[in-house]
Automatic annotation (TrEMBL), chain A:
<keyword id="KW-0408">Iron</keyword>
<dbReference type="InterPro" id="IPR000510">
    <property type="entry name" value="Nase/OxRdtase_comp1"/>
</dbReference>
<comment type="function">
    <text>This molybdenum-iron protein is part of the nitrogenase complex that catalyzes the key enzymatic reactions in nitrogen fixation.</text>
</comment>
<keyword id="KW-0547">Nucleotide-binding</keyword>
<dbReference type="Pfam" id="PF00148">
    <property type="entry name" value="Oxidored_nitro"/>
</dbReference>
<dbReference type="InterPro" id="IPR000318">
    <property type="entry name" value="Nase_comp1_CS"/>
</dbReference>
<keyword id="KW-0479">Metal-binding</keyword>
<feature type="domain" description="Nitrogenase/oxidoreductase component 1">
    <location>
        <begin position="67"/>
        <end position="476"/>
    </location>
</feature>
<keyword id="KW-0560">Oxidoreductase</keyword>
Automatic annotation (TrEMBL), chain B:
<dbReference type="Pfam" id="PF11844">
    <property type="entry name" value="DUF3364"/>
</dbReference>
<keyword id="KW-0479">Metal-binding</keyword>
<dbReference type="InterPro" id="IPR050152">
    <property type="entry name" value="ChlB/BchB/BchZ"/>
</dbReference>
<protein>
    <recommendedName>
        <fullName>Nitrogenase molybdenum-iron protein beta chain</fullName>
        <ecNumber>1.18.6.1</ecNumber>
    </recommendedName>
</protein>
<feature type="domain" description="Nitrogenase/oxidoreductase component 1">
    <location>
        <begin position="70"/>
        <end position="495"/>
    </location>
</feature>
<dbReference type="Pfam" id="PF00148">
    <property type="entry name" value="Oxidored_nitro"/>
</dbReference>
<keyword id="KW-0067">ATP-binding</keyword>
<dbReference type="GO" id="GO:0016163">
    <property type="term" value="F:nitrogenase activity"/>
</dbReference>
<keyword id="KW-0408">Iron</keyword>
Length: 500, 518
């Protein structure tokens, strides 16, 4: 059991502060000074978590972050299923991100939907030297010939595109004209732009604004009759089916979901979204930009929600219903009541097995805060959390609505710091990504990937909560963790080889 | 509502139920502007035709589902094969996140690597400061014995000079003057991950043998009895390297495995995270110059490295992912010839057991048609083994194979009566393979995890051999090289063949061909 449950809050804070000082000693002075600003112990009542964020990662520290391409192709655009997303540049980026995010969708892959294909211009040296625009022109023709049912194309720029001076915008415009106004979207998400995935999200959002919304025609935007109950799900990537287990609840309460951004989404859904009465925003970090734009341009209000765990789900359903009439408000109550027996059964089964267990998180997007409620519904406690690419507004939301006094906060944590923190705090569970998973499991610490749901899911909605509970239980209470020590060897504390 | 706490349904079952199916159908009908189902069906059928194949093979600019990755992945893979070595990739940081994820998803192991995290300002001014700060931070935090530098395409496009940058960084005190920082330029727009492996390994050997970038005297070769062995970029490195060591030990040959990453990709879960484990010692890497000969298990992973080693006076010898009887025979006989040691009876017995197994099962493989794709050496090795088994490797495709590979493959086909109707496809991708499988069907497909899309589309059963394997666990722990490795490959192929017969004959209301003895 971690010290978090056995010591007073003041003791915890002192220990955590000491821990921060301890990890900083490894760095050269300049680096220590910079990293110190990203680490803190949360003080209850503060407006934010007291850390700097969205700053450049420091060279050589083993940051966990990715790049703008990952934010655009990997997160925002990639799941739009009826468009073809070209990884424009050398082969690697598209290869490493091929099918790894589990953005589920329905469709005939390779014929009318394309998410799990890897389309690339596979740049060679001559493309770098002479430019890739001509290749791109030809590539689009080949796409049109071999995939005639694609509804649109995006060009996801990899690093070289912005460095060699290619004009992908001109190519996009020309080819769009040639193909009768076809939606072709150039995205300037070169990996060296910005400090993390985050700028890629922003660039991708802006590309929707400039190349989809600004080119709407009456025909594209009026495919159905609006109703007063039309909403769009924004910022749900349908990982393991999350958007589906969310959509079903919204429909059950009487709303009509006209678009999913972007998991299992289609170009038509993006185009229809300006007709929504309310945009509901799950991943604030990656899609607040387009939500704000739609508010300004089309007058569509937006509200954040959280579909992890029954407490936050009920709170969110009521908040969303608050934008509508009594019919929807009653619908929300009906949905909450319908699922209460399921929630009670899940809590009865799993809470006794998980009560008092501590968790440390390090994830991207919304999850470093959003999943805290789900853990608390199971009697668990989050003792440390941080964002891979959060901004200050994420830390404000975290401080004001989620974390407890004394929680250790680590922004853009690196391999060394994270290992040290976990080693010292000895949580019962770590939730982070694939790069972290095996490090902690080697140390004997139960782990769940909280980007991909460790190949499980969905975790959103009432149907997702039992899966979440089951998975956390199987991680923490797996008998394998009692086998990590050979019986003939004395028990030793986990240690970090690299630091010695 | 189908979900319940007692029997929790996850994505595998949850969405197949009527509530969700109805919801998805409504979504499609109302909001997706979906294509007419008849049109989808028409195009789906058209995509199977020779006409489509012709258009597909006429592609010049577009690559779809390639079976290759980029250079730095190979550089990282080679670098972690040296004792206490931290790979440091100079350029954008997202690339490193990708390599680490990719390797971890295959091996189910940690993968440690750092980036110099270059951003827009470095694109303008160059990445010298990133290198200087990065080396200092890595050195202090992770206490490596060596930092092996490679590059992303960003650093290559702007033309950063690694040699000069590392020298300057040392002058500025990032790492001690005599700390080993070998380097290799690994542009992603040239070659593939196997090229990166080659460049990185050559860079490391060059560093130790040729005077550490002008900071030490060059080594004078004093030939000894040792043999160097290089595995190449190999998803089975854990099992294969250990098998090779066992064979060397059985033959009583002194050896050095260069870039031995078999331990770092197979560390125990015992409470300790080993960021570095095993690997070729730096001393051994330097002393490898004195070896009698160097054997590479993969020709196309080591072209530059072997030329470099040959230039230092050693005999060099390359194999092509040696799978099966003859390939192993040749490897052992080469070892015997070079070392002067006899091949022990124990290995002859192993050989006999593999031949025995092949004879036992031959009837089930003989004449079966296969398609294979993967790295050029793996394709060659598997093809040779299938020909030994009397199978027909009809389509052999390698995205990163070149003209020389094509010619060598065709010569291999020509050497066997079972290779007469077989073709090698260099530079093609898995969408080409899709057309091949539709227009000239085969019985089985051999390839990596991405082959499951081909299996779904074309109905060709997939035997997973290659890299990456993400959706099956632990196969990398078993060798595919040597007689025992051949046995593993044989069993894997046979299992799929028998499973396929069972699948086809497991028909309700019938009881024929669903045999319990085969």
């Amino acid at each position: 059991m971690s010290f978090a449950t056995t010591e007073s809050i003041e003791e915890i804070k002192a220990r955590n502060k000491e821990l921060i000082q301890e990890v900083l000693t490894v760095y050269p002075d300049k680096t220590a000074k910079r990293r110190a600003k990203h680490l803190n112990v949360h003080e209850a009542g503060k407006a934010d978590c007291g850390v700097k964020s969205n700053l450049k990662s420091i060279p050589g520290v083993m940051t966990i972050r990715g790049c703008a391409y990952a934010g655009s192709k990997g997160v925002v655009w990639g799941p739009i299923k009826d468009m073809i997303h070209i990884s424009h540049g050398p082969v690697g980026c598209g290869q490493y991100s091929w099918g790894s995010r589990r953005n589920y969708y329905a469709g005939t892959t390779g014929i009318d939907t394309f998410v799990t294909l890897q389309f690339t211009s596979d740049f060679q040296e001559k493309d770098i030297v002479f430019g890739g625009d001509k290749k791109l022109v030809k590539l689009i023709d080949e796409l049109q010939e071999l995939f005639p049912l694609n509804n649109g194309i995006t060009i996801q720029s990899e690093c070289p595109i912005g460095l060699i001076g290619d004009d992908i915008e001109a190519v996009s415009k020309a080819k769009s004209k040639e193909y009768g106004g076809k939606t072709i979207v150039p995205v300037r998400c070169e990996g060296f732009r910005g400090v993390s995935q985050s700028l890629g999200h922003h660039i991708a959002n802006d590309a929707v604004r400039d190349w989809v919304f600004d080119r709407l025609t009456p025909e594209k935007s009026s495919r159905f009759e609006p109703t007063p109950y039309d909403v769009a799900i924004i910022g749900d990537y349908n990982i393991g089916g999350d958007a589906w287990s969310s959509r079903i609840l919204l429909e059950e309460m009487g709303l009509r979901v006209i678009a999913q951004w972007s998991g299992d989404g289609s170009l038509a859904e993006l185009e229809a979204t300006p007709k929504a009465k309310l945009n509901i925003l799950h991943c604030y970090r990656s899609m607040n930009y387009i939500s704000r734009h739609m508010e300004e341009k089309f007058g569509i209000p937006w509200c954040e929600y959280n579909f992890f765990g029954p407490t936050k789900i009920a709170e969110s359903l009521r908040r969303i219903a608050g934008y509508f009439d009594d019919r929807i408000k009653e619908g929300a109550e009906r949905v909450i009541a319908k699922y209460q027996p399921l929630v009670d059964a899940v809590v009865a089964k799993y809470r006794p097995r998980l009560e008092g267990k501590t968790v440390m998180l390090f994830v991207g997007g919304l999850r470093p805060r959003h999943v805290i409620g789900a853990y608390e519904d199971l009697g668990m406690e989050v003792v440390g959390t941080g964002y891979e690419f959060g901004h200050n507004d994420d830390y404000q939301r975290t401080a004001q609505h989620y974390v407890k006094d004394g929680t250790l906060i680590y922004d853009d944590v690196n391999g060394y710091e994270f290992e040290r923190f976990v080693e010292k705090m000895q949580p019962d569970l770590v939730g982070s990504g694939i790069k972290e998973k095996y490090v902690f499991q080697k140390m004997g610490v139960p782990f769940r990937q909280m980007h991909s749901w460790d190949y499980s899911g969905p975790y959103h909605g009432y149907d997702g909560f039992p899966i979440f509970a089951r998975d956390m239980d199987m991680a923490i209470n797996s008998p394998v963790w009692r086998k990590t020590k050979a019986p003939w060897k004395a028990a030793a504390e986990p240690r970090l080889m690299a630091a010695e | 509502m189908t979900q319940n706490a007692e029997h929790v349904l996850d994505h595998v079952e949850l969405f197949r139920g009527p509530e969700y199916q109805q919801m998805l159908a409504n979504k499609k009908k109302m909001f997706e502007n979906a294509q007419d189902p008849a049109e989808v069906e028409r195009i789906r059928e058209w995509s199977k035709t020779p006409e489509y194949r012709e258009k597909n093979f006429a592609r010049e600019a577009l690559t779809i589902n390639p079976a290759k990755a980029c250079q730095p992945l190979g550089a990282v893979f080679a670098s972690v094969g040296f004792e206490g070595t931290l790979p440091f990739v100079h350029g954008s940081q997202g690339c490193v996140a990708y390599y680490r994820s990719h390797l971890s998803r295959h091996f189910k192991e940690p993968s440690s690597c750092v980036s110099s995290s270059m951003t827009e300002d470095a694109a303008v001014f160059g990445g010298l400061n990133n290198m200087t700060d990065g080396l200092a931070n890595s050195y202090n935090m992770y206490k490596p014995k060596m930092i092996a530098v490679s590059t992303t395409c960003m650093a290559e496009v702007i033309g950063d000079d690694l040699n000069a940058f590392i020298k300057t960084s040392k002058e500025k005190g990032s790492v001690p003057q005599h700390f080993d920082v070998p380097f290799a330029h690994t542009p992603a727009f040239v070659g593939s991950h196997i090229t990166g492996y080659d460049n990185a390994l050559k860079g490391i050997l060059e560093h130790f043998w040729d005077g550490k970038a002008g900071t030490a005297p060059k080594l004078e070769r004093a030939p000894n009895e040792k043999i160097n062995f290089i595995g190449g970029f190999d998803g089975y490195t854990v099992g294969n390297t250990r098998e090779i060591k066992r064979i060397f030990d059985l033959m009583d040959v002194q050896y050095t495995i260069l870039a031995d990453n078999s331990d770092v990709f197979d560390t125990p879960t015992d409470g300790e995270f080993r960021m570095y484990d095993g690997g070729t010692t730096l001393e051994d890497a330097a002393n490898a110059v004195h070896a009698k000969a160097t054997i590479s298990a993969q020709q196309w992973c080591t072209e530059k490295t072997l030329a470099f080693i040959a230039g230092h006076g050693q005999e060099v010898l390359a194999f092509n992912h040696p799978v099966g009887v003859s390939a192993t025979d040749e490897l052992l006989m080469a070892l015997s010839r070079i070392s002067g040691k006899e091949i022990p009876e124990a290995l002859a017995r192993e050989r006999g057991r593999l031949v025995d197994a092949m004879a036992d099962s031959s009837a089930h493989i003989h004449g079966k048609k296969f398609a294979i794709y993967g790295d050029p050496d793996l394709c060659y090795g598997l093809t040779a083994f299938l020909l030994e088994l009397g199978a027909e490797p009809v389509h052999v495709l390698s995205t990163n194979g070149n003209k020389a590979w094509h010619d060598k493959m065709q010569a291999l086909f020509a050497s066997s009566p079972f290779g007469q109707n077989c073709h090698a496809y260099p530079g093609r991708d898995l969408w080409h393979m899709r057309s091949l499988l539709f227009t000239e069907p085969v019985d089985f497909l051999i390839g990596n995890t991405h082959g499951k899309y081909l299996e779904r589309d074309t109905g060709t059963p997939l035997i997973r051999i290659g890299f990456p394997i993400f959706d099956r666990h632990h196969h990398h722990r078993s060798p595919v090289w040597g007689y025992q490795g051949g046995m593993n490959v044989l069993v894997k192929i046979l299992d799929k063949i028998f499973d396929e017969i069972d699948r086809k004959t497991s028909v309700a209301g019938t009881d024929y061909s669903f045999d319990i003895i085969r």
